Amino acid sequence: MRAQLSKALGGVRGMVEAAVPTIGFTATYVITDQVRTAVYAGIGAAVLLLLVRLAQRSNPQFVLNSLLGIAIAAFFAMRSGRAEDAFVPGILLNAAYGAGMLLSIVTRWPVVGFLIGTVTGDPTGWRSDPGILRLCSRLTWILLAPCVLRVAVQYPVYLAEGDQSGLLGVAKIAMGWPLQVAALATMVWVLARGRTPLEPRPGATA
Questions:
Q1: Which segment of 30-39, 90-99, 126-135, 192-201 scores lowest on mean pLDDT?
Q2: CB 151 within 8 A of CB 96
Q3: Rounded CA separation 58/56 (Å)
Q4: Over 50: is that where the pLDDT of 204 sits?
């Protein structure tokens, strides 16, 4: 199950590739205070990573996701003329993710179960095992925690008076992939505490 989860989340490389363009965008903006320059830096990093992926003929999903995120952030900032608004999409996205994952836990259809199911080829088979269902709920709580922390920290900063773009930039970098890696490491630790096999059901396709 640990291998299935790592594959579903893109592994360490996928997480890094998803973060690097955003880090490039945010760090450049903090230094230059220029949204356009920051967009170029983020896009440049994404394009470089994309070229590496294409050269290796591997999946560019996480790079493309980051490129889309940078484009949306730039749109918000340029439309309003306020640098802080570049961080609004990230705050809203984390709030939506958090609400969605919480709902999935409450309804006993935890998100992590579907992540595992998409890899095994049986999207709902994991629900037939009460132990796996409980485990997926615990793992979803762990995956939910970074979203809650980001909103809890960044939204009050966004609402504060004055130009908070620098502080928001630092918070975005510090609470981006480091929190995600910490969450993944915690999930792996939880999985390592016991034997958690997850085999595809008969007839399911890999």
A1: 192-201
A2: no
A3: 5
A4: no
